[in-house]
Design brief:
This protein has 409 residues and is α+β, with helices and mostly antiparallel strands. The protein has eleven helices and 16 strands. The protein is globular and about 75 Å long. Keywords: Iron, Metal-binding.
């Protein structure tokens, strides 16, 4: 895994999206596979994802962190398993019961484990940055010869990273193209038709499954551990819903009651109602500021991202040592926006909103985009030495950049 030269170990960028899909390039992935067809990458490299998660980490989480039923679930395609089967009266996970269910054929599911495992957190943020989309993360630990879920499709794109063991996968057709949440699916016919494709994922392999592609999976003669990233991307559906809502707020014609008799009068004038409907449809764009709508969706994505500030305690302890010789760099996979208005420049990242005089904009952007350690004195711009130090300290305090020379320990 490549690392940023001389960066603190606690803030190394970690696994990247490029490493997830390698040897494919991002251009190849987005052109041929994204939202189009499944991708199978078989590497013959069982260690490829080994740095992300281990069986010991899973066992430690289950047995020492007192998780409850919100943190651990189970699934079994053959027989139903409920939280009562593996929790105690306090709703905490009973590890002995959990592992008994596991031994009897049920899959352990750990949602949101990136909140506990830094390597997973870093990869999640890298993928979120790549897609401008929230990730839903689940870990699946299956016993030998087990199937957690019946044949189904997902309403979001899924990346499957096989960490240990192996699974036999079957993919079928796409009954609903790019389905939305709630669109109905009849799985009964898939018990009678053969799959379109059958393949095995071994440790180190990847499967990208676009939403709507029907599939199922079963572990082989060993336990199986895989990570799934569910891409909870915004769609044009959300844009259109927002646009219609904006039009309804702006124009009272959208808020008029439906004509009397529309439900019960056999002589109701549907042609006139249809003409009104078409007029309203045609006018939606007149009431919508598309740029503002898109900016609002983008702003929500940025502000909803929780900051990743590992190592921040040490950064603050060393803050007084920052001078023009200090080398700084952006935090890996930082998601942020920069905007200017009224002679001010504003940086937004997570819940942090930092407003500064607009004359610092050029060096500010350079600092936020600096992926390799660089001395403050080496940045272009006419900001004097004291100004550079003040700006760098402010950005470090806000968790936006870090002093690469101030390593832990």
């Amino acid at each position: 895994m490549s690392k940023t030269a001389d960066a603190p170990a606690s803030v190394q960028p970690g696994f990247s999206f490029e490493q997830v899909i390698a040897p494919l390039t991002k251009a190849e992935f987005f052109e041929k596979y994204y939202e189009k067809e499944g991708l199978i990458v078989q590497r013959n490299d069982p260690e490829h994802f080994a740095s992300l998660l281990t069986l010991d980490q899973i066992d430690e989480f289950i047995t020492t962190s007192s998780p409850n039923a919100a943190h651990v679930a189970m699934a079994n395609a053959v027989s139903e398993v409920t939280s009562a089967d593996f929790t105690g009266p306090d709703n905490l996970i009973d590890a002995a019961k959990l592992y008994q269910q596991f031994n009897d054929g049920s899959t352990i599911i750990l949602p949101g484990l990136q909140r506990k495992i830094p390597a997973l957190a870093a990869l999640c943020r890298a993928v979120e940055q790549e897609f401008d989309a929230q990730l839903q993360t689940n870990i699946y630990l299956s016993p030998p010869n087990a199937q957690g879920f019946k044949t189904h499709y997902d309403t979001h794109d899924v990346f499957v990273l096989q960490v240990a063991g192996s699974k036999e996968w079957r993919s079928y057709d796409v009954p609903v193209e790019l389905p939305l949440i709630g669109q109905k699916f009849d799985s009964s016919k898939y018990t009678e038709i053969p799959p379109v494709k059958e393949f095995r994922l071994n440790a180190g392999d990847l499967y990208y499954c676009p939403r709507g592609l029907v599939h199922d999976a079963r572990s082989t003669d060993d336990i199986s551990l895989h990570i799934t990233f569910g891409l909870m991307a915004k769609t044009w559906t959300e844009v259109m819903v927002e646009a219609v809502t904006a039009a309804c707020v702006a124009d009272p014609a959208f808020r008029e009651n439906l004509p009397r008799g529309f439900a019960s009068d056999p002589d109701f004038d549907r042609d006139a109602a249809r003409a009104k409907f078409q007029d309203l449809l045609a006018s939606i764009g007149d009431h919508v500021d598309f740029d503002a709508l898109l900016d609002n969706l983008g702003s929500s994505f940025v502000t909803d991202r929780k900051p990743m500030l590992r190592g921040q305690m040490h950064q603050m302890m060393q803050l007084s040592k920052v001078d023009t010789d200090t080398r700084i760099m952006t935090r890996p996979n930082l998601i942020y926006t920069v905007s200017t208005a009224d002679e001010e420049v504003t940086v937004a990242s997570g819940q942090t909103v930092l407003t500064l005089p607009d004359h610092v904009e050029p060096i500010l952007k350079d600092m936020l985009a600096c992926a390799e350690p660089k001395a403050l004195s080496a940045f272009d711009g006419d900001l004097d030495a004291d100004g550079r130090v003040v700006l760098a300290k402010r950005l470090i305090r806000e968790g936006l950049i870090l002093a690469a020379d101030h390593q832990n320990g």
